[in-house]
Amino acid sequence: MKELTQILLLTLREKRDVALAIVFGVLAGFASVALLASSGYLISKAALTGQMTVLIVIGACLKLFGLSSAISRYSERLFSHRATFTMLGNLRVSFFERLAPLAPELYGKYRSGDLLARIIGDVESLQNFLLRVFYPPVVLLMVFSGTILFTLYFSIYTAILLAIGYLLTAVMVPAYFAWRKSRKDWKIRESRGVLSAEAAEFLFGFRDLKIYQQLNGKEQQLVKMVDSYQDEQKNEGKEEVYSQSTNGFLALLVSLAVLAAGAYSTAAGELDGLFLAMLVMVSLGVFENISPMAAFPAHFEESRKAAVRLESIVDETPRIKGEAELPVGPLTISAENLHYIFPGEQRPALEDITVDFPVGSKTAIVGPSGSGKSTLLAVLMDILPAKGGHVLFNGRKSEEFSQESIWQRLNVVLQENHFFYGTIRSNLQLADPQADDKEMNAALEAVELSDFSLQMEVEEKGQNLSGGQRQRLAIARAILKRSPLWMLDEPVSSVDSATGKVIYERLFKNNPDSSFIIVSHDLSGLEGMDQIIVLENGKLIESGSYAELMKRQGYFYGLKEIEQQIMA
């Protein structure tokens, strides 16, 4: 039950609606019992007396109880559902507040489809917590307690039988089926997550599967997973049906026992026969409220597992970040003994990196594929948290500043840049919502996209754009942000050399006081860089200007020799 503590606390925040739902639920339960009890009493009274006044009064009571039952049931549904929807809203807000600081590392731990299934499906599953887990036992206990006290006045045997019936149908049967469910350990939540992950991967990789003629095999795999998921749903449904059938059968047995005990008491002169039908109808009426308990084990386990799956995403302690704002003006960045290792990996991605990026300098980070270039840039941008060492801004640790303050000062272009469904204008205005058409056209011209119209449609993820066009559009978007610190990760890797050179020249010319940190696998055109940092296997091999590194004839010199031999 401890897994549901957070959900319970969020539910009880809506204590007014929860309390009203319970009150009206109890009133609806009493009204339905009173309705059937009055019907039984009316039948007996009509058979034994001809007093029309009494019959009219009882008939009026029947109408009153019927109306009360309908109004109470409506009010119960209104307040319980309103509390549920508010709780779900609070849960989403609370979950995303805890999720946001961990977001950069989540994709290294979870597949996107599984993550989406948890965020959407498991949150939706918890809507049953109030309606099917917390609320029914409370209402049922109150209704049964009141009914037992009422019948105790007429027959102690009936009261005892109802108490036994309550223990069987509301406690023992749900507990037994909950135990069965925990033993069988249905993995329907996990199966849904895996299926969502595979389906997302199927959609993302459809083109490659088609090209390599592996589409049919992947489709068959998905079909098997769907069949397995459906089988688990069927088995889970069968358990609920078995629980309902068992509860219904025991309720019928108790009602028959009440009839038998009442008949015996009537024959023995211990009970007025006028009340026999009423007590039997009371038994039938009170057990009408027991049906939600048949589904209790399934919904309890479903809510518990959903809470566990959600908690497993955000159970890490988030980084403690300050709320300070980066100072206005020039910024120096320094890496001090930086260390980073990806979750689940053994080899460090970065190891003891110490380097300075002076104000207004142009720095290139180079090295072979997998050497840690992009990882270093991500740590400098505060996207990935350093596992050791620090990133310093003007000599102060990055932990002192909020992420928003850091990102506000950065012009970032990554290897993969997201473009939203819309137009060129709407995607450019992400950087500056106030930018006018003249400024946006100037940014497009700076990256050799002057033939693009601002009204041109952009499909989801920019699928109607080439790789080079997407990169240049990302640079144009960064230009409009007008921040003093540029961090570029292979920004022109899909652009031809001549166009890439023109773009760099314009960036440097138009932003003479800005700092540039550029990750590149291309070793050509680095002569104008103030500093070149060479990485290999996450370690800093050497650093210096182009002339210094070439004169030193070290690692960078060897890379240039290899490049020249290949180009020759």
UniProtKB/TrEMBL annotation:
The record's annotation in SUPFAM superfamilies points to: ABC transporter transmembrane region (SSF90123), P-loop containing nucleoside triphosphate hydrolases (SSF52540)
InterPro entries named in the record: AAA+_ATPase (IPR003593), ABC1_TM_dom (IPR011527), ABC1_TM_sf (IPR036640), ABC_CydC/D (IPR014223), ABC_transporter-like_ATP-bd (IPR003439), ABC_transporter-like_CS (IPR017871), P-loop_NTPase (IPR027417), Type_1_exporter (IPR039421)
Q: Where are the transmembrane segments?
A: 20-43, 49-72, 133-154, 160-179, 248-267
Annotated membrane topology is: Multi-pass membrane protein
- Respond yes or no to whether keyword Repeat is given for this record: no
This protein's source sits in the domain of life called: Bacteria
- List, for all copies, the residue spans of the domain called ABC transmembrane type-1: 19-302
The chain positions of domain ABC transporter read 333-562
Q: Where in the cell? A: Cell membrane
Keywords associated with the record: ATP-binding, Membrane, Nucleotide-binding, Transmembrane, Transmembrane helix
Q: What is its main location?
A: membrane
User: Is ATP-binding found in the keyword set?
Assistant: yes
Q: What is the name of the protein in this document?
A: Thiol reductant ABC exporter subunit CydC
Specify the species: Metaplanococcus flavidus
